[in-house]
Design brief:
about 375 residues, Zinc Finger, Delta Prime, domain 3, 5-stranded parallel β-sheet, binds zinc ion
Length: about 375
């Protein structure tokens, strides 16, 4: 499959590239860029790991490009001053807000380059735990910088990603910008959890929902960098998001998930106490564990209800089945997972959260 010149860490962003979204979003892209007067507030949503960030960056670049003739054909020109500065990470009319954690962990160099402008890089470097939220200071700074005329483009673009990382104060401050947008400006809010944003923000944006690619497309893309079996397994674990699947495979997460499965088996067989297991798990990244547990609980429920065993549980040494769990208790665990996912960016006590989750999981074992 032809991939539309996607940013990758190794290739870097200096290379001249016409656009950066993934081919499976071509339909949504064409629909959006052919709109005559685009809404000033866009909320780009979709599942995790499908390429929303790349899509939003491509859109920002497209809006800033001044080469009208090429824009008519549905992409940025990649050659004008706007495009060159954008790709170099130095365009003055592009504003990107994200959390400190995302700035450090991102797979896209452009994200670090632009978001550095809104973060105290020195203070961030000294922190043992970089911030997971977008604080109000960033929005205040944005409002100050955004009130001026565009510097070189005819347009100004703000990208907040993920928008659900804004705390309440930050969202309220951004609302003012959405209510009274400066001329020739576009605000793009990217999120996989629009429900975590205030309704007042959502109602002022046009929704752009990016679909999860079909399994065959995702597998074809993944198989460029890994064998078929690994691609298939990682895709399942990543809830069908190909970019997350690639990251899982690259970062050895497949081993971690194997360990999680063993630990659940130990819990079912009473080989380990819930508190000892929670203690052990609290050493790993809480958001990764929450993501895994979310997928696990959903699939056990599906297995129980449909009586069809999901592929993820294909293992000869599995000591339990879906019947080992109470569905009602799994739903209670599901609610807790959703709640903790909504606050995982706040400073929370990971050990207490993990204990609560594991005790609830244990209570679901019949
Ligand atoms: Zn251009």
């Amino acid at each position: 499959m032809k991939q539309y010149s996607v940013l990758s860490v190794s290739a870097g962003y200096q290379e001249k590239r016409r656009s950066m979204y993934y081919v499976w979003h071509k339909g949504e892209w064409e629909q959006l860029v052919n709109v005559q007067a685009l809404h000033h507030g866009l909320m780009v949503t979709g599942a995790d790991g499908i390429g929303k960030r790349e899509f939003c960056l491509a859109l920002a670049k497209f809006l800033l490009c001044d080469n009208k003739e090429l824009k008519v054909s549905g992409g940025d020109c990649g050659r004008c001053q706007n495009c060159e500065l954008f790709d170099a990470g130095t365009h003055p009319d592009f504003h990107l807000l994200t959390s400190e954690t995302e700035n450090i962990q991102t797979r896209i160099p452009l994200v670090s380059a632009y978001s550095d402008r809104y973060q105290n890089v020195q203070a961030r470097g000294k922190k043992t735990k970089p911030g997971k939220i977008i604080p109000i200071d960033q929005i205040r700074l944005l409002i100050e910088r955004f009130s001026t005329q565009p510097h070189i483009s005819q347009h100004k673009v703000v990208l907040v990603m993920p928008a659900d990382a804004m705390n309440t104060n930050a969202s309220n401050a951004l609302l003012k910008l959405l209510e009274e947008p400066p001329e020739n400006s576009t605000l793009i809010l990217m999120t996989s959890s629009p429900g975590f944003l205030p309704a007042t923000i959502r109602s002022r944006c046009m929704l752009v929902n990016l679909p999860t690619p079909r399994r065959e497309s995702a597998l074809e893309w993944l198989s460029q960098s890994m064998d078929e079996e690994t691609a298939s397994l990682s895709l399942k674990l990543a809830n069908e998001g190909p970019l997350d699947a690639k990251q899982f495979a690259d970062n050895g997460f497949l081993d971690t998930q194997g360990q999680y499965m063993n630990q659940v088996s130990n819990l079912v067989a009473s080989n380990i106490t819930p508190l000892a297991l929670a203690m052990d798990l609290s050493k790993s990244d809480l958001s990764i564990f929450l993501g895994w547990l979310h997928g696990f609980v959903c699939e056990v429920i599906v297995w129980r209800v449909s009586e069809i065993k999901p592929n993820r549980f294909d293992s000869s040494d599995l000591v339990w089945s879906s019947k080992s769990f109470s569905v009602e208790r799994l739903y209670a665990l599901y609610d807790k997972i959703i709640f903790y996912k909504s606050i995982v960016r706040e400073p929370i006590n990971a050990q207490l959260v993990t204990e609560d989750l594991i005790l609830t999981l244990k209570s679901a074992i019949r």
